Amino acid sequence: MAEERHRGPGPGQAPADSGDEEGSEQESPASYTDSSSFSSNDLEPEWLDSVQKNGELFYLELSEGEEEALLPANSPEVPSVNHVRFRENEAEVIPTGQWKEGKKVEPTLKKLSRILKKPQKHVSRKGPTSILKQPPTLKTGGAVQQRYKDVCIYVNPNRLSSSEVGEPASLLHTLVGIIHQSSWSSGRPGRRQGGQNGNLKYTNEEKLVVHGLVPGSSAIKSSQIMIGDALIAVNDVDVSSENIERVLSCIPGPMQVKLTFETPVVEAEISMEAKEKQVQSNMNNLTKLLWGENNSNVQLAFQEIPHIAMYLSLKLDSDTSKEEQEILYQYSMSEASKKLKSVRGIFLTLCDMLHNVTGGHVISSSLIVSGKLVHVAYWKESDKLLLIGLPAEQIPLFQLKNMISDVARTLKVMYGSLDSAFCQVENVPRQDYFFNLFFQRALQPARLNPTASPSTQHYDACSSLLLDNLPGVRWLTVPEDIKMEVDTALSDLEAVDFAALSEDYYDMRRLYMILGSCFFYKGYLISSHLPKNDLVDISLYCRHYCLLPLAAEQRIGQLVIWREVFLQCHRQASGAEGYQEPEARYFLLIVGLKHFMLPVLLEAGGCTSKIIGNPGPDCIYVDQVKATLLQLEGLDVTIEERLGALPSPCLSCADWFLPSSRDKLESFTNVPYIKLQTSAKTATFPTSKRALLMDTSSSLRTRRPSPSRNSGGFDNGSEGPGEGAGVSPHSTPDLGRKYGRRESQGSGSSEGSGGGGTLFKITKKRHTLPNPFNLGSLKKNLSEKDTEELYNVIKITSGPENTLFHYLSLETVQGIYICPTHKEVAQLSGSIHPQLIKNFHRCCLSIRSVFQQTVFDKKKNNLDADTSSELRETGSGLGPVKEHGVLFECCPENWTDQKKSPPKMTYWVVGRLFLQPQPQEFYVCFHDSVTEVAVELAFKLSYGLAV
Amino acid sequence: MEGLRLCLLCLTTGSGVPVYSRHRGAARQLPFSVIGSLNGVHMFGHSQDVLLSATCTENVKVLWKSFHDSISLIVISSEEDASDHYLHRLMDNVFHAMVMVIGLDELVNIKNVERLKKDLRACYPLIDSLLLASERIGDLVQCVDCVMAHDIPVLQECLDAFIRAADSDFGCLVARGRIVVATEKWWRLAAQEVMLLTWLVASLAPRSSRDYPVYLPHGSPTVPHRLLTFQLVPGVDVCVLCGPSPSLHKVETELVEVFWKPLLEPVKACLRVQLRSFPASIPLHQGILGLLLIKQDQNRLLFTVQAQPGEKPPKDGVGLSLPERRSVLRAFYTLAVTHYFPPERLDERTLPLLEEFQAGYSHSASECYIASSSHKCYALQAEQRQLFLLFQPTVPTFSLRSIATRTLQTFTKDAPF
């Protein structure tokens, strides 16, 4: 664990607007005394001063390992403008900084473990405070000055001290890389326009004009700082030549600082609407943070893409003639988006009129903006209208419909209603952040995670459109014992039985009851003790804030999120059987550590004491969740092993099915498989199965001699038992040994499906059968015999080869889905396979939209059943589709052989919908050589995955 | 809106004056205020350089399209199976049907709206036939419904000779709205023109002979040609597309009798294959209920939902009724074409009015199927041919593919279409 961490508060840390400022001013003395009393206590958690006025907390520390390279490049969670490092008043800078410096020396984890070692002491000192009082609500740094150019750069004072000790050069020069020569500076008067913050004391100190940039420094790397700019603030602390060194010396460790510059160019922009400017500068920083790219490129790229989010009021006051009064909130920044904004009248009129005429809500509109087809989805709530517009090229219409309902749901979970999400002024920057992430996920999913390996990136990019809108969380099956351990730990936590919280101890009611929790590792759900709806709500929140991919990389030093949530199922009055949901409030606490994330849902006010106001996170609960995480920390080896283990069910790579790439791939794939073999020993698979599996995969790789296989016929009966010999030149000794054993069993490749001698006969039979479709019954016999084995193991396709390329299984009832892990996909690299994965996901989108129609029709029919059945007789399109498949064909790229036509590889993408006994969806992608019965595959998949 | 299944409004783009409105299903005029605001939002968008193309609500779809900045069509549909793809095609067809009947000039330079209204009455039969749920599918596929008669070579030979004698290159034999044979040049007309001409002939009241001026929407939208039709037997017409000569009278008296009298039996036989669209001698798998075969290079298609020759019309409640079969096949065709199969031809349209979902695929799809509790469908695309089959639900899913392949083979080798 690294010593130093970078920390930054999160998106929730919106700048307090001026209206609330007064209120917080009054509060602040109390808070400060609190905080100072804490500062003497070295147990005070780091996140405490990030807690916002309304009790919300989004605190993220990155571990040092992620350092400079990562930091400017990505991590959406390190937000932009809202860095609050110092107090806004100059006076506070130094003490805060020193205090921080002293405190930060201690590694967080060590401290945590110390907390855990002496819980009694901790409780006796801290406990009463946290139960009696609400944790202090500290004032966040004042309204962020948006009128100037904000540049976030990474500075590392540690590096400085090690390399350039004793050099008298200024910190501005060495740390930031800005050259300022005081003699040069003209005596320009400090014309600070944004004086409304009461910071006008800045007068005649010399201005810090940039006269040059140090090569290789952070300043020049940012490529945003121009010569001639004037540095006016560091992290919202006004600086001048007087205090700059002092301010910079307060930077405790490697971190991101926000430098605010005044540029001559800015003057023109200042005249622009303040709001627009704010969005824009927000974007500047974020793009840089997220993508580490020259932001002008990104701006340009986004400029051409029409996209918009608006929240409009349908009720128009005719009295007020204010321009754009119906726009309650808007997020858009490109030129093309402005056009969409200008035609908002269309949406309002249509929404109103069509509702009156047809009696149904408006769902979507399609428009052509700047030569591009753009879909706009509507979400109407009382007399307000939420609109999201995205180009059809990126987002198909049926997907956009899902997306807007997800957005609406997430916002409702977070704020209770769309009204409170958009109409409260302090929420505006939060929504800006929210939609910024939203559009980036929608438009450029790959860029959110630029550090990931190319294959992961590709997998994420092409699957995100589909997976991000499934009503579920990505699930990872783990061996029973691990699952047990996790479940036990979670149950212990949920019992709220720890000493500090026992009701007897303080003789008072506890603050919260834990409703449930779930446990993520690298973005995979390992265990969930939450009802499905709550789980989906929480996962939607995590998804919209990109928390799950975040944990996939080793990035989280410490993550603490606290906020009140308004859960869907608790919102609805469940009047059934006299049970009433308690009039309670719910809080979501997410604690993350390394690759782990543990969201906990707390209830206050049911059987626990009532909550008044907006409490911040309670230290004891946070510590307890952390303790649970630390307790489970040891599991990462085992879970990692599971992730690295043989894919289950076994997957093939599309490239293996093309003769051209045979040699290359064999040499390539042998190695990983052998490695996997050894790692699988520790996993729970029975040994006999493993040998079998090995054969499957190896036979698969070797049986690639005939380009004619694409005919769909099964003509490789000729490759009999002898084929193992042909392979040995390619195989490593280890593999050779396996082959030896296999040959001694004497049944050749037939073991692949576990059939032993029976299959040998089948191979012969197949030879005489010209048509693969006639194999249907034959195959059934076979699979009946082998059912048991097949279910336990890994290969779910029939036939001697493993023909499964990819799968996705969605269990709507449990709110989870299962698909191959990133590692499994990464092992199957090739040229065709990534394309196949992309195709698979796109095709699943379409298949799923057909299924959604089926489900929708069914619901409607159920409703109609008692009223009238007349409508149904027209026959609605495709009818109740339960299975849908598409056959794709592909050829290897760069086929150079002019004489022969390129070999074709064909594969199916098949989706299967089950409505009974519980709604489930399966999507599989397999090679076309064997006819599969999709139902069979689906069952094998669901049992094989042991959900 | 109740009872309204589909409503088509035609307005002038500039002034927003309603020109006509046609309906499918129980017709009730939309209130003028609704029409006005529907047109208003479209015009407002136009003024802002944003082209509003479609909007859907929970139960209704509204589509707008304006042509040559002069005529705007608005279509409102409450049918669940009406896809955007179909509705766009419908508006396109309707506009070009208007061009075909009154010419492009009159539509682009509107001098007198009242006169235009009067002129456009001539289009109503054709437009109504496009709006009516028809037994044909050419309006959706943009190809011509054809019939495979028994004596194709004889009829073809006779037609060629007849057309030559009539001093033309363009002619065809139409049996109840489906083409039996046509001259080679006829097939070279734009697909939409061939389709519209056939529908025009079918939509007009039966006459023994007719001389009808038509504008070819793509070939000659401003200069009219003459379409001569002669009824050979009720339901079967022979059509000639020609210039100023020869006169109707000359062809009717001198040529029709001479050429077609000897072939009366084969001509009558064309009507007998109507239901199935191809002779009973062509074997099909028992499980096939309906078939749609498209020959893309020639803009021809075969379409039937009574694929089994001896089949009795399905009873109520058992299996799919004929309109249901048509609806399923239409929906399945739309799904396959809009989501999977690569677009067959580049559209001349410059604006991407419809979402091109297939563009996102890295590999091209060649086959697809759906299985539901009441039916199964299979689609196959190969070498300029597309085959869509509707099956009984009892046919096992894994055998669909082989049946489809065999069926396609039947129509390429054994009985070439």
TrEMBL record, chain A:
<feature type="compositionally biased region" description="Gly residues">
    <location>
        <begin position="749"/>
        <end position="758"/>
    </location>
</feature>
<dbReference type="InterPro" id="IPR043987">
    <property type="entry name" value="CCZ1/INTU/HSP4_longin_1"/>
</dbReference>
<feature type="compositionally biased region" description="Low complexity">
    <location>
        <begin position="26"/>
        <end position="40"/>
    </location>
</feature>
<dbReference type="InterPro" id="IPR001478">
    <property type="entry name" value="PDZ"/>
</dbReference>
<dbReference type="GO" id="GO:0009986">
    <property type="term" value="C:cell surface"/>
</dbReference>
<dbReference type="InterPro" id="IPR043989">
    <property type="entry name" value="CCZ1/INTU/HSP4_longin_3"/>
</dbReference>
<dbReference type="GO" id="GO:0005737">
    <property type="term" value="C:cytoplasm"/>
</dbReference>
<dbReference type="Pfam" id="PF19031">
    <property type="entry name" value="Intu_longin_1"/>
</dbReference>
<keyword id="KW-0217">Developmental protein</keyword>
<comment type="similarity">
    <text>Belongs to the inturned family.</text>
</comment>
<dbReference type="Pfam" id="PF19032">
    <property type="entry name" value="Intu_longin_2"/>
</dbReference>
<dbReference type="GO" id="GO:0060271">
    <property type="term" value="P:cilium assembly"/>
</dbReference>
<dbReference type="GO" id="GO:0007399">
    <property type="term" value="P:nervous system development"/>
</dbReference>
<protein>
    <recommendedName>
        <fullName>Protein inturned</fullName>
    </recommendedName>
</protein>
<feature type="region of interest" description="Disordered">
    <location>
        <begin position="692"/>
        <end position="760"/>
    </location>
</feature>
<dbReference type="InterPro" id="IPR036034">
    <property type="entry name" value="PDZ_sf"/>
</dbReference>
<keyword id="KW-0970">Cilium biogenesis/degradation</keyword>
<dbReference type="GO" id="GO:0005929">
    <property type="term" value="C:cilium"/>
</dbReference>
<dbReference type="InterPro" id="IPR043988">
    <property type="entry name" value="CCZ1/INTU_longin_2"/>
</dbReference>
<feature type="region of interest" description="Disordered">
    <location>
        <begin position="117"/>
        <end position="143"/>
    </location>
</feature>
<dbReference type="InterPro" id="IPR039151">
    <property type="entry name" value="INTU"/>
</dbReference>
<dbReference type="Pfam" id="PF19033">
    <property type="entry name" value="Intu_longin_3"/>
</dbReference>
TrEMBL record, chain B:
<dbReference type="GO" id="GO:0005856">
    <property type="term" value="C:cytoskeleton"/>
</dbReference>
<dbReference type="InterPro" id="IPR043971">
    <property type="entry name" value="FUZ/MON1/HPS1_longin_2"/>
</dbReference>
<dbReference type="InterPro" id="IPR043972">
    <property type="entry name" value="FUZ/MON1/HPS1_longin_1"/>
</dbReference>
<feature type="signal peptide">
    <location>
        <begin position="1"/>
        <end position="16"/>
    </location>
</feature>
<dbReference type="GO" id="GO:0016192">
    <property type="term" value="P:vesicle-mediated transport"/>
</dbReference>
<dbReference type="Pfam" id="PF19038">
    <property type="entry name" value="Fuz_longin_3"/>
</dbReference>
<protein>
    <submittedName>
        <fullName>Protein fuzzy homolog isoform X1</fullName>
    </submittedName>
</protein>
<dbReference type="InterPro" id="IPR026069">
    <property type="entry name" value="Fuzzy"/>
</dbReference>
<keyword id="KW-0963">Cytoplasm</keyword>
<feature type="domain" description="FUZ/MON1/HPS1 first Longin">
    <location>
        <begin position="7"/>
        <end position="130"/>
    </location>
</feature>
<feature type="domain" description="FUZ/MON1/HPS1 second Longin">
    <location>
        <begin position="169"/>
        <end position="252"/>
    </location>
</feature>
<comment type="similarity">
    <text>Belongs to the fuzzy family.</text>
</comment>
<keyword id="KW-0732">Signal</keyword>
<dbReference type="Pfam" id="PF19037">
    <property type="entry name" value="Fuz_longin_2"/>
</dbReference>
<keyword id="KW-0206">Cytoskeleton</keyword>
<dbReference type="InterPro" id="IPR043970">
    <property type="entry name" value="FUZ/MON1/HPS1_longin_3"/>
</dbReference>
<dbReference type="Pfam" id="PF19036">
    <property type="entry name" value="Fuz_longin_1"/>
</dbReference>
<feature type="domain" description="FUZ/MON1/HPS1 third Longin">
    <location>
        <begin position="287"/>
        <end position="414"/>
    </location>
</feature>
<dbReference type="GO" id="GO:1905515">
    <property type="term" value="P:non-motile cilium assembly"/>
</dbReference>
